[in-house]
Amino acid sequence: MAKLAVALPACAMPGMLEAGCDEAGRGCLAGPVFAAAVILPDDFTHPWLNDSKQLSEARRMELRPLIQWQAVAWAVATASPQEIDDINILNASILAMHRALDALQTRPRTIAVDGNRFKPYRDIPHTTYVKGDGRFADIAAASVLAKTFRDEYMLEAAAEYPGYDWENNKGYPTEAHRRAVAELGLTPLHRRSFRMK
């Protein structure tokens, strides 16, 4: 696990009431894509907070309530497998981020997005940051929320659709998941536009 020497800065633009945005589940074969938007106080700091992929599941779950409690505002939203198939995963990811921004109780003045692609949201300026979830705490916090909420969703889905090993792979294209698709077929949660073999 990567260890940070210093805590990430709370946001890219202090004093601007910035919302950090990130998604989880883009590369999965099944399930919605989840996105989160988080506004942190400018003085927020936590030595563990980093890109959710660099954290253990236990550490992500420890961070989640801290983020929810200390954030100025936070929200999580989704785009469905059907929407992913209809508009493609990039557009669905951006749609989920827009929905998360819609759900914020506090309107941000600027938006910081992980990655290099985004579409304008209302009249609020945005900036994209490659590997932003490892650079700014608000994007990292969004990464943690999106990942933990999605993982919980896939655990519940695993009970409804047993045999696909979603309790372990969370819908990602592991060998066990692909083998189950070949043997059991597709569920309503599978993305038909994704290559299953």
Describe the model.
The protein is an alpha/beta fold. It has one domain (18-159): Ribonuclease H-like superfamily/Ribonuclease H (Nucleotidyltransferase, domain 5, 2-Layer Sandwich), CATH 3.30.420.10. It has 6 helices and 5 strands, in the order ββαβααββααα. It has helices at residues 57-70, 81-87, 89-103, 137-160, 166-169, 175-184, and strands at residues 18-24, 33-39, 73-79, 110-114, 126-129. A hairpin with an 8-residue loop joins β1 and β2 (33-39). It is globular. The protein starts with 17 loop residues before the first strand and ends in a 13-residue tail after the last helix.
Entry keywords:
single chain; 197 residues; alpha/beta; Nucleotidyltransferase, domain 5; 5-stranded mixed beta sheet; 6 helices; 5 strands
Tally of alpha and pi helices: 6
CATH architect. name: 2-Layer Sandwich
Helix proportion range: 25-40%
Got a strand count?
5
CATH class: Alpha Beta
Helix and strand content put the structural class at: alpha/beta
CATH fold node name: Nucleotidyltransferase, domain 5
Order of helices and strands: EEHEHHEEHHH
Strand content: 15-25%
Strand order of the largest sheet: 3-2-1-4-5
Q: Give the CA-CA distance, first to last residue.
A: 30 Å
What's the overall geometry? Answer: globular
pLDDT < 50 stretches: 1-5
CATH superfamily: Ribonuclease H-like superfamily/Ribonuclease H
Biggest sheet, in brief? 5 strands, mixed
